Amino acid sequence: MVIVGGGEVGFNAARMLSGEGNDVVLIDQDEALVERATEGLDALVMQGNGASPRVLREAGVREASLLVAATGSDEANIIACLAAKAQGVERTAARIHNEDYYDPREPFTQETLGIDFVIHTEQVATEEIRAALLVPGAIDVETFAGGRVQVVEVILDEDSPAVGRAVRDVDLPKRSLVLGGVRRGKALMSRGDTVLEAKDHVFLIGEARRVPDLVNAVATKAEPVGDVTIFGGGRIGLRLALALEESGIAVKVIEKDEARARHVSARLKRGLVLHDDGVSRDFLLQERVDRTDAFVAVTGDDRANLLAAMYARQLGAGLTIAGLGRGEFAPLAD
Description:
By secondary structure, the protein is of the alpha/beta class. The protein folds into 3 domains: 2-119, NAD(P)-binding Rossmann-like Domain (Rossmann fold), CATH 3.40.50; 137-218, Regulator of K+ conductance, C-terminal domain (Alpha-Beta Plaits, 2-Layer Sandwich); 227-333, Rossmann fold. It has 12 helices and 16 strands. The protein has helices at residues 8-19, 31-40, 53-58, 74-86, 108-111, 121-134, 211-218, 235-246, 258-267, 281-286, 302-315, 330-333; strands at 2-4, 25-28, 44-47, 66-69, 91-95, 117-119, 140-144, 149-155, 177-183, 186-189, 201-207, 227-231, 250-255, 272-275, 294-297, 320-322. The strands form 3 sheets. A 6-stranded parallel β-sheet has the order 3-2-1-4-5-6, with helices on both faces. Strands 7-8-11-9-10 form a 5-stranded antiparallel β-sheet. A 5-stranded parallel β-sheet has the order 14-13-12-15-16, with helices on both faces. α6 (121-134) runs parallel beside α8 (235-246). The longest helix has 14 residues, at 121-134. The chain is globular, with a radius of gyration of 22 Å. It starts with a strand and ends with a helix. The relative contact order is 0.08.
């Protein structure tokens, strides 16, 4: 398998695939990313232009069963997939940011661009955050079976009705299950006699229409989200604001770049857009973040996201979400 791009998406894809026993070649032009990948991955790492047919040939793409193009450039990813297909690669996957290049309703992406699977990170992030906001009490929601079945992740607190009870004694809605969980960073297998504890991350599955009741059966009852403050008006922030407006949720966006703030303001129908750095605790308090139902930090800066979300939580925001691009920051989010 060949992966083009050694950033977070490419690096983590390479780590996962090599960890499953696959032979992986990772290509990137950036010397620092190549050095990081060489030290941190059980994979062959090459420095070069992954969109070059010559470099791909040297990487052994003709013998590869899959090429993943995960650079930060849509154009480079498309060219890499075209070059790989021309050399006989059976399957290709590309990270695409710009919707103009990708419409799931059109066969153009697969037939002309040579892309079998599209990784649309901003769209995925937006959908996951939106789903979590629409299911009070859940921090993550995954949908299956055409929207009929959902898997939700819930963090139990001291007041959760399921804390101290065995899984078999938790009163769940019909056709619902506790799949398992995570306790202090380790997998928690769900058996009938498993006693749930505070701070457990619990995974539940059930019919989508009954998910709110399912969450309330194990977590502290949460009120529906009526207003959301979004820190960052980039691609994810704007997508999320538009999606929440469509769901009838009041939106306030904080964006530090003036031109981008004007663009976001022009796209929103009812939402309020503020031009400010937004990381200041005093500014957040001034904008009544302590009274917002949810605060979502989705700038391109992981540190700023964590800091702003921490301040919002301290001030009393109902729910705080920080978007993270680097996996090493994830433990800090808890």
